[in-house]
Amino acid sequence: MCESPVTEMVSTPWEIAPIETSQLQLLVDGRHHDPHSILGPHPFANRVTIRTLRPWAKSVTVLTGSVDGERRTPLTHEYGGVFAGVMDAPEVPDYRLEVSYDQTTSIVDDPYRFLPTLGEVDLHLIGEGRHETLWTVLGAHERRYDSALGEVRGTSFAVWAPSALGVRVIGDFNHWDGSATPMRSLGSSGVWELFIPGVESGASYKFAVLARDSTWRTKADPLARYAERAPATASVVYSSSYQWHDENWLSHRRSHDPYNSAMSTYEVHLGSWRPGLSYLELADQLTSYVADLGFSHVEFMPVMEHPYVPSWGYQVTSYYAPTSRFGSPDEFRHLVDQLHQAGIGVILDWVPAHFPKDEWALARFDGTPLYEHPDPQRGEQLDWGTYVFDFGRPEVRNFLVANASYWFEEFHVDGLRVDAVASMIYLDYSRKAGEWSPNRFGGRENLDAVAFIQEANATAYRRSPGVVIIAEESTAWPGVTEPTDIGGLGFGLKWNMGWMHDSLSYIQREPVHRQFHHDDMTFSLMYAWTEQFVLPISHDEVVHGKGSLIGKMPGDHWQKLAGVRAYLAFMWAHPGKQLLFMGGEIGQYAEWSESRSLDWWLLDNADHRGLHSCMRDLNRVYRDNAALWSRDNEPGGFQWLDANDVEGNTFAWLRWGRGGDRDAVAVIVNFSGGPRENFRVGLPCDGQWNELLNTDFAGYGGSGVGNLGSVQAQEIPWGGHQYSALVRVPPLGAIYLRPM
Question: Is 414 a catalytic residue?
Answer without folding.
Answer: no
